[in-house]
């Protein structure tokens, strides 16, 4: 019996020390109001990714969204990165939408028994 108690305590400590990632089935990320010619690449996901371009760049990721990140290049040569996975709301959500804006903030929208919205400043890491 003495051997089990330390193992259980270690398991409990590990569970509380491990960061809890948000689980999102579908993540839509829209890069709005960026200069025409901006291009973006996605990293840190094995989920199914679809991309649409037009007036804005839109990515849809199904599965494996917790660590999704983007690296984008603008026509003037400047580049930036966005860690979209870090912007996900806590908890399990079926669908989350984000709009990443040129003026360094994001709108994050999700349904949690009603539409929720978070505005997150300081998200662009310029390189």
From TrEMBL:
Keywords: Signal
Protein name, entry field: Uncharacterized protein
Signal peptide (UniProt feature, chain positions): 1-22
Source lineage: Bacteria, Pseudomonadati, Pseudomonadota, Alphaproteobacteria, Rhodobacterales
């Amino acid at each position: 019996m003495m051997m089990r108690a330390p193992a259980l305590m270690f398991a409990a400590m590990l569970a509380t020390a491990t960061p809890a990632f948000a689980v999102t089935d579908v993540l839509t990320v829209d890069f709005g109001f960026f200069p025409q010619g901006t291009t973006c690449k996605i990293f840190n996901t094995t989920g199914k990714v679809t991309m649409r371009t037009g007036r804005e760049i839109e990515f849809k990721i199904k599965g494996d969204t917790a660590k999704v990140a983007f690296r984008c290049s603008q026509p003037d040569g400047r580049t930036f990165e966005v860690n979209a996975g870090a912007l996900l709301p806590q908890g399990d959500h079926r669908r989350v939408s984000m709009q990443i804006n040129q003026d360094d903030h994001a709108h994050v929208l999700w349904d949690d028994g009603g539409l929720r919205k978070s505005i997150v400043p300081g998200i662009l890491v310029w390189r």
